[in-house]
TrEMBL record:
One Pfam match: SHOCT
Protein name: SHOCT domain-containing protein
SHOCT domain sequence ranges: 6-33
Organism name: Paraurantiacibacter namhicola
Entry keyword Membrane: yes
Membrane-traversing stretches: 98-119, 125-145
InterPro entries: DUF6404, SHOCT
Top-rank taxon: Bacteria
Keywords: Membrane, Transmembrane, Transmembrane helix
Length: 166
């Protein structure tokens, strides 16, 4: 990998020659700066429980992922309270915390679905139907979402979680 000064010089040449607009130059410059912070392991820790998570978020931003792909409101809530849940594309890599997150989301979604179906049917839903709803939601969160998240990692050619400094 070339050094940051050389990359910035090349970007500036593209801006001066008119290939890049001022907005494109500013965006590419901020991405380069974010990548440099990740490589050096010095991403800004503000709001993140660990340096590794701060580095991962900076690296994901530098690849152009949207904020909603990087972290949900739930991630940010947990981070503010010191829980070290990896950002979106990496969350499924850490099976323990991810299983707990899936169980919580499935319980919440299953409870809401149970209440809606109970209201719609006049209370004619059994415990076993409720359990079935919970298991369906758990399967969706635990089996389907990780595949989508891992596809993002492959598509964007992101480093593996254990390769991120921190």
């Amino acid at each position: 990998m070339t050094n940051l000064a050389e990359e910035l010089r090349k970007l500036n040449e593209l801006r001066v020659s008119g290939v890049l607009s001022e907005e494109e130059f500013a965006e590419q410059k901020s991405r380069l700066m974010a990548k440099d912070k990740v490589v050096s392991g010095k991403a800004d820790m503000d709001g993140y429980p660990t340096q590794k998570i701060a580095n991962a978020v900076a690296m994901l931003r530098a690849t152009g992922l949207e904020e909603r792909e990087i972290a949900t409101k739930g991630h940010r809530w947990l981070w503010q309270r010191g829980f070290a849940l990896p950002p979106g594309p990496y969350v499924a890599r850490e099976k323990g915390p991810y299983a707990l997150l899936c169980a919580g989301m499935a319980l919440f979604a299953g409870t809401i679905a149970y209440m809606v179906f109970s209201i719609m049917t006049g209370g004619g839903i059994s415990f076993w139907t409720g359990l079935g709803l919970y298991l369906v939601f758990f399967a969706v969160f635990f089996l389907i979402l990780p595949g989508n998240l891992q596809a993002t990692v492959r598509k964007k050619k992101l480093p593996e979680w254990d390769q991120i400094p921190g």
